[in-house]
Amino acid sequence: MGNADYECPHRVAIPPSKPLFKALQSSFKETLFPDDPFRQFKNQPLAKKFMLGLQYFVPILEWAPRYTFEFFKADLIAGITIASLAVPQGISYANLANLPPILGLYSSFVPPLVYAMLGSSRDLAVGTVAVASLLISSLLGKEVSPYENPTLYLHLAFTATFFAGIFQASLGILRLGFIVDFLSHATILGFMGGAATVVCLQQLKGILGLIHFTHETDIVSVMRAVFGQKHQWRWESAVLGCCFLSFLLLTKYFSKRKPTFFWINAMAPLTSVILGSLLVFLTHAEKHGVQVIGHLKKGINPLSVSELAFGSPYLSSAIKTGIITGIIGLAEGVAVGRSFATFKNYHIDGNKEMIAFGMMNIAGSCTSCYLTAGPFSRTAVNFNAGCKTAVSNIVMATAVMITLLFLTPLFHYTPLVVLSSIIIAAMLGIIDYEAAIHLWNIDKFDFVVCMGAYTGVVFFSVEVGLVVAVTLSLLRVLLFVARPRTFALGNIPNSMAYRSIDQYPIANNVPGVLILQIDAPIYFANSNYLRERIQRWIYEEEEKLKSSGQTSLQYIILDLSAVGSIDTSGISMLEEVKKNSDSKGLKLVLANPRSEVIKKLDKSKFIESIGQEWIYLTVAEAVAACNFMLHSCKPNPAAVELQGRENMV
Amino acid sequence: MGNADYECPHRVAIPPSKPLFKALQSSFKETLFPDDPFRQFKNQPLAKKFMLGLQYFVPILEWAPRYTFEFFKADLIAGITIASLAVPQGISYANLANLPPILGLYSSFVPPLVYAMLGSSRDLAVGTVAVASLLISSLLGKEVSPYENPTLYLHLAFTATFFAGIFQASLGILRLGFIVDFLSHATILGFMGGAATVVCLQQLKGILGLIHFTHETDIVSVMRAVFGQKHQWRWESAVLGCCFLSFLLLTKYFSKRKPTFFWINAMAPLTSVILGSLLVFLTHAEKHGVQVIGHLKKGINPLSVSELAFGSPYLSSAIKTGIITGIIGLAEGVAVGRSFATFKNYHIDGNKEMIAFGMMNIAGSCTSCYLTAGPFSRTAVNFNAGCKTAVSNIVMATAVMITLLFLTPLFHYTPLVVLSSIIIAAMLGIIDYEAAIHLWNIDKFDFVVCMGAYTGVVFFSVEVGLVVAVTLSLLRVLLFVARPRTFALGNIPNSMAYRSIDQYPIANNVPGVLILQIDAPIYFANSNYLRERIQRWIYEEEEKLKSSGQTSLQYIILDLSAVGSIDTSGISMLEEVKKNSDSKGLKLVLANPRSEVIKKLDKSKFIESIGQEWIYLTVAEAVAACNFMLHSCKPNPAAVELQGRENMV
């Protein structure tokens, strides 16, 4: 009891350990219910609870009673605007997925209706998305050729959509939405950029009027396919494509400069389709190498429940496709919904959104739709058009329904090259190189993750890009824990604060005392590292003191403020550090161990071995105690112990 | 500039950002060279540098000049003791690996010599290990039957050993030794216990004298194989086995009670082998169902370089087996070496050890040895026998060499059942249930990891156990980052310290101010969670204040002391939190951002948006500033802003 004379001003509290069940319960709640969704249910009568529960799962019940005619006027305009975008985009993306074009229209009818009832975003416009379409064609296309066996391919696409829905809904119901968080912003940025690049490259087929094309999506294969059949290029198609692409890009540029004219940009795709169709119809260009959509069946979505291919030998690839497209759809959709909610300052519940996405895809897979999500472009148009609630989705669905019932024959002469131009124009907006530069400026590692995803997608495949980016992101987290920073602290003049000497060069060393701060939980992954690093700190400090002839080192204070947790390997590490410093005649002192840490140190008897009186609430108090011991006549208790031991030997 | 009147006592330093190359260099050094191995090379002449470098890679050059006769006497005794253990253990483990028994002796000859030159541990006794032997038989046995094609199996075992050596040495040379750290103590404990259980179960074959047995290692298959052929059980074998097992366990128990008689335990296996062989020789029990080793070739290790099967179609399984056994061997060996080094208070360099292990396995694979590592049992005997340096390994190797040259015929009549008893007796010591109970008491999660590894190995397979345990361990790290704890802080009476109210119930709330501490780096994996959780803190605090009629909430102080790092997703999260609190009329204040964090906040202009004057060095100073603002006549600047905005609307 070396410092019995020194009165410690504050004791470090060792909270009583909770009973196992309670501890489990509270950590379960913190992990899965951080937003405490049940808080509004507390102290309510049963009927009210039921009503609130229903409103929780079907948000339309919550906001419909407050719906006004003013809102409807705004939603009507927004809905018609996005419908004019949805029809050509739907056909284009279905084409990209190698599915019948009509599926793009079907997919803009049923899913938006389901989302309007269950979704919590007021701005999200539901529809098919380019990246998921590309993924379906590349993942399913590997197994079943869409040209040789279109029916099986179609059925597998429905099945994949079904499993995507099941997966999305289960994530939401099991409150595992945080899995989506592991796709960091940088990952999504790089992945989307890469996918958009790949999608643009794929459109060279349509623009150049090629008939045969590669199934691969990487840039090398695509370029080989394009330049390997130069003699097949159709100049008529290429000229048409360039004209429409320029038109679309010009309108986009114009709308960006003058946001009030957003509708020009929104209407441009439909205008292109109408102009293109008229042109083909009048010039009979379809007989001169310009491919057209051809016959589209009239009528709304036929049921497709019986077409879900649960018994197919390709079921596993359908499930895989469903899970990958489902998680990508969710990641984009939830991120889009969340950003627009932040604009308008309302709250979106990620888990609820996942259930809504899942239900709309399950319903979609039974009604001849393929995977839908919340595309950014359509949502941005919806937002700019002034939508107020999800009713704009209902308006869009109605407009699409009218198209399906009466207007499909009009698309017979629509040239595929126009659809390709529409896709390219939309995709060029997704390649957000400015955001990548921003990442480079702020966080180099995020930039590396982003570029990893991008190059993985462009040069290898969509899955490779995703795996590379997620692995890099996780590696960063693991590296943070595996190689925590340690800092030597010094006293900030005129204060009781002790801060890193690196960050605050004005901070003063305390003679004879080495204060170290550890910056991460002490886990198995870093305990060996920390032991070596602490030894090196001590060695370096001793060398420095020796060469400058100052007081020799007597105390090591470990500031555990930033150590959130410890495991058994970490405790062994501390025990070894204590043993090592004892053998060198140094006294180990702990400052500010947190409740998790002190509980475990107590249970493992480490506190007994170090002595409760050598654990302080703050670094300042630890330093004061050390100074008191250093300057009182008594020698350092650890040194005395050591001497005693040496005498015994 | 709300608090322009208030003079901030200390500024938070924003360290200048390092040039990219320098930053990369320093983080590279911290990651791969935390022990700064080059420090002794600094300011030395070239010749000295060369000598030091040679000593670094061949430690025997460093300690051999200081070797004394006293040391040799101790090492001689220890070496002979471990040799008497090495011979029967070597034969037993080779049997377990389904390899020719003579390989066990070969493996105790060359590798110990290599290790003695390159290794840095003074206590480690080199030899084959049970778990790696089991792994070889289960991983290679899946591909090639050791009974039907013993030559190919043997060659694959050499090849696997070669790749294990290459893998171990490269880990060391590339300084990637920290990969082994990801096998936490709990993982190894559970894994070793499970493997020992499985090994014991396998010995039922030898004990019961069964001829046919399953290739599976899981408990269900083994039990089915044992009880499925009850009529094949040989009572002679079983009786012999039980007798020897009791003898071995009794000597072990006795030696444990009286550590000075450690040699009784060490000699027991050899005694059993001699007694068993004599018994069989005298009673001709080999003709009554007791299987014996049979003919062992005389002579030292033949070369096996030409037998490395690089061209084999099974090369990939050999590589896989090599990597798995190599990493398991390393994990056990380095841990064993490290623990004994801690006892004797000297330092072991993990990366250097890996190179030594790798070289000894490469050399071994060329001289008819299979995988060797540092078995715990043999090392403990070595330590107890009073070894001083790695010379005890040289003594052991010499003794084994003499056995190989002259004594192999003596093992002709050694019954297999004695070998099984030796393995069981060794394995029972490895099942460390007390350590598992210790884990349960201190850290429940570590216990779960341990049991995951154990049940995975026992009920499924060795690989499943390993994968389960590593996944669980990594999941824990990820969960720590994905769900960081947040705490409300209060003032500890009579101090400037602010601590978690959970841990220190005496801590006092500051009226009108919510102080939150975040306990982990703010990364993509937790930024959504933190946003929700901070919102909930604010909501709950407001509810509490409303119901108690106190001052309404005006300030939120985020204590970033424990936030070691931030990425772009984290910065977006802070921006959203600021936006949300602005919209509620709350002012966001930061306390003690660390150098990594403040640099990025500065680059991303977040500091500009929050105002440099709202960032404080300590929580106490932030609280003082908030209190000054609250009690001066001026209203809260954020509230003023908000009012202004509302007036504008």
UniProtKB/TrEMBL annotation, chains A, B:
> Main localization of the protein?
membrane
The record's Gene3D superfamilies line, in alphabetical order, gives: STAS domain
Domain (STAS) ranges: 503-626
Q: Which GO terms describe its cellular component?
A: membrane
Q: Which InterPro entries match?
A: S04_transporter_CS, SLC26A/SulP_dom, SLC26A/SulP_fam, STAS_dom, STAS_dom_sf
Any single GO molecular-function term of the entry would be: secondary active sulfate transmembrane transporter activity
Say which domain of life the source belongs to. Eukaryota
Q: How does it sit in the membrane?
A: Multi-pass membrane protein
Q: Has UniProt tagged this entry with the keyword Transmembrane helix?
A: yes
Q: Where in the cell is it found?
A: Membrane
Ordered alphabetically, the record's keywords are: Membrane, Transmembrane, Transmembrane helix, Transport
The regions listed as transmembrane in this protein's record are 76-93, 124-140, 152-174, 186-213, 262-282, 354-373, 385-407, 413-433, 445-475
The record's similarity note reads:
Belongs to the SLC26A/SulP transporter (TC 2.A.53) family.
This chain belongs to the protein called: STAS domain-containing protein
Organism, as annotated: Lithocarpus litseifolius
